[in-house]
Amino acid sequence: MSVALDEVALKSRLREVLDWDPQQVEITALSGGYSNLTYLINSEKGKFALRRPPMGYKISTAHDMVREYSVLKALEQAGYSRSPQAVYLEQDENILGAPFFIMEFIEGQILRGNSPLAQKLVPEKYRILSQQAIVSLHELHKLELEDSKLIELGKPDGYVQRQVTGWANRYQNAKTDQIPALEKVAEWLKIHQPEHSETAFIHNDYKYDNLVLDLENGINIKAVLDWEMATVGDPLMDLGTSLAYWAQEDDPAVLKHFNASHFPGNLTRQEVINYYQSKSGKRLDQMVFYYVFGLFKVAVIAQQIYKRYQLGQAKDSRFAMLIEVVKAAGKLAETSIRTEKI
After folding, report:
1. I need a surface site. Which of 122, 166, 217, 310 has the fewest CB within 10 A?
2. Does the global pTM surpass 0.70?
3. 169 and 246: one domain?
4. How far apart are CA 339 and CA 241, in angstroms?
5. How far apart are CA 332 and CA 90, in angstroms?
6. Is residue 2 part of a domain?
7. pLDDT band at 257 (very low <50, low <70, confident <90, very high)
8. Using CA atoms, how far apart are residues 172 and 179, in angstroms rounded to an integer?
9. Number of H helices and number of E strands within the chain?
10. 100 lies in the same domain as 120
11. Burial of 180 by CB count in 10 Å (0-12 exposed, 13-18 middle, 19+ buried)?
């Protein structure tokens, strides 16, 4: 569901700060996301993307446009080549009702859930894509932190504990239904945190539909999108979140809407872990914790959006089914704890 912008105010601002001719600016809402809103801007200077928070109920700093803009700038300084170039940040909420920023638009294809593109891709290409996706994730985890100043984006000390506590609190604040499985998972996470963790730059929302792909010339990941939750912390928390989105063929149908990883040819979750381990050399013997955390986090994100829908602050009809995502993710997490399998 697209949300219209005040084009008159926006075009006037773009003329003022970027010297863009309002007569040459066309704005189109881009569909697909469940959270922050993205628009395509065609101008005489080329194509750009505008990012702004969702309308209505403010969930958390996950929708902080100022921070996402800062992350893109920091990645540019670090020499990372797969993030769009940040062009302009607007902090005056009077223009569009919230801060927004403009970035480079990367041409390519986005692979979403059960889209026609996802159904058309052959197993051989999925195999390559799933491997390249893990290589790209590990590439992020290897970025140098000190000289690039990426370290300034987060507070790695105590990261795991803060995340567990923070997401548990967010769930309580957004809860609409009684879901015992999630209550149990939250308590389990609090008492099963790993004693040691490493520090790396992490994306925190890494999945297929946040990748811009070139599928015409082999398989090429052109860009990684949606950096609003990126920070510095435990890289296995990042991998755990990706595993939570990494649906398999035998997963509940409602969870397959969010990633095309369930189609034939993709690595299984265990193969993802094995492949990441082969590239990183890390010990991954506590991945059940990280996977369960990822599922809990996905459930809370869905719960937050569902609450906005229930409050009437979001009208997208897709949001009505998100409570089923919350329940399914909670059940899968509970099963993983019981079986000690991913």
Report:
1. 217
2. yes
3. yes
4. 19
5. 41
6. no
7. confident
8. 11
9. 11, 9
10. no
11. exposed
